[in-house]
Amino acid sequence: MTLPVIGLDAIARVATPDVVFGAVRDALIAHAEGRTSVPAPMVLEFPDHAGDCHVKAGYVDGSPYFVVKIASTFASVNNGLMLVVDATTGAPAAVLADEGMLTAWRTAAAGALITDAMTPADVDEVAVLGTGEQARLQVQWLRELRPLRKVRVWGRRPEAVESLCAAFVADGLDAQPDALGGTACVIATTAAREPLPAELFRSAIHVTGVGTDMPGKGELPVEVFAGALVATDDHAQCLDHGDFGNAVRAGVVTDDVDLAVGAVLRDGVDRTRRSVADLTGIGAADAAVAAAVLEQLVR
Fold first, then answer.
1. Between β-strands 51-60 and 42-46, what pairing exists: parallel, antiparallel or unpaired?
2. Within the chain, where are the H helices?
C-alpha cells in the first residue's frame, strides 16, 4: 500500500478557520483535563544556516490518529510535514506535506482563542510585536473572533513594519507603526532572545506571547507577569522554556500560579484583570488539527 502524501493546496481547501479553531480549542481543553498524550518536544538548531527544527508528537484521547510533526524555520522560511498514524494499529495513514502551514495556523488559532478569551470584550485595538508571518496571522485569526479597528505594529526593521502595516491596511484595518504608544492588548510574536522594551507593555491589560518556543528565547519582560493572571498552554513546557519559566526563575512569580489555557477556554476568567498567556505550542494541538484535516479529506 502506498502512503498518501497530501500537499498544501489540498490541505488549505479543508483547513478552514472553523475546522482549525474547533480542533485547537478541543485539544487545549482536553490537555487541561489530562486527556492527551504529549511527550517533550525535540529541538534541533542550525546556527550556520539561521535555522531550527521542532519535532513534536501528540494524541488526544478518543481520536483515530496520533501525529508526529516536523516544523522547521530556516532564514525565516517555514517548512515541515505531519505524519498521521492510525491510533488503533500504529500504521501510517498519511503524510500531510503542509510546508509548515498547519503549525502556523494552529499557533494563530491558539493565540487568537486565548487573546479573545482574556481581553475585555470592548477592546478593538491591539499591538502586534514582530513583523513575520505569525504577526500577520495572529491579527487575521483574532479578527475571526472579534471586531478589530486598529493595529499598532512594532518591529526592529522599519521597512518590515511598513510592509506589515500596508498588508493590514489592505485588509481594511487602521494600522500604524506606533506600538510604543501602548495598547490594552499586546500580542508578541518575535524570536527574541532578550526581553522586548518594557514600554511596549505599559498599557497592556492582556498580553499573549507566542514567540518563546524553545530554550534560549525570551521576548516578554519578566515584570509583565507580576500580579497578573497567568495562563499557559502546557505547564511543564512553559516552565522549562517559556516566558513563564523565565519569570519564575527571576523570582517574579511562583511556579504554581498559572492556569491551563484550556481551562480558561472552558470556564472563562475575569477579563478585567490584567493577564498574560504564554504559548509554547503543544503536540496535542498538532494532532487534533491534522486529524481534523485528514477526516475532511477522506470524506
1. antiparallel
2. 8-14, 17-32, 101-118, 133-142, 158-170, 235-241, 243-249, 261-267, 283-297
As a whole number of angstroms, the distance between CA 168 and CA 187 comes to: 15
Per-residue pLDDT of the chain (299 residues; tens, 9 = 90+): 689 999 999 999 999 999 999 999 999 999 999 999 999 999 999 999 999 999 999 999 999 999 999 999 998 888 999 999 999 999 999 999 999 999 999 999 999 999 999 999 999 999 999 999 999 999 999 999 999 999 999 999 999 999 999 999 999 999 999 877 779 999 999 989 999 999 999 999 999 999 988 888 999 999 999 999 999 999 999 999 999 999 999 999 999 999 999 999 999 999 999 999 999 999 999 999 999 999 999 87
Q: Which three cell numbers stand for residue 153?
A: 505594529
pTM: 0.95
CATH numbers and ranges of domains, the chain: 5-104+284-297 (3.30.1780.10), 111-281 (3.40.50.720)
| CB-count burial class (<10 Å; 0-12, 13-18, 19+) for 47 | exposed
**What are the backbone angles phi and psi of residue 83, rounded to the nearest 5°?**
-95, 115
